[in-house]
Give the backbone structure.
Amino acid sequence: MDETADYTLEIQIATRFLDDESVPDDDRYVFAYTIRIRNIGQRPAQLLARHWIITDANGKVEEVRGDGVVGEQPRIEPGEAFTYTSGAVLETPVGTMQGSYDMLGDDGAQFEAPIPPFTLSIPRTLH
């Protein structure tokens, strides 16, 4: 069995700076990120847990682990997608996030779905 074809997820990420929740004078920069997880594999899979590595421009690293995402552990059928929005608070106007999802296939197979690195940045900071 080709497990790669059975369990393949496409992860798309969009970010935005939340100016009204940020306080730059207090080194508080709030960002929202929307993630769309699409199952392009051949079998259903359930998202059990998440692992984030969040790094700010000062090199401060925060790791976050937890069950599911936004209080859910979605089961994603082949051809379907699950979209959610969450947030992160940094002490700098620029940072990065990356990580992985712990997944469980319908046949009991456990696998990790990598979340590619993405940038959190206030507008007009990066060219």
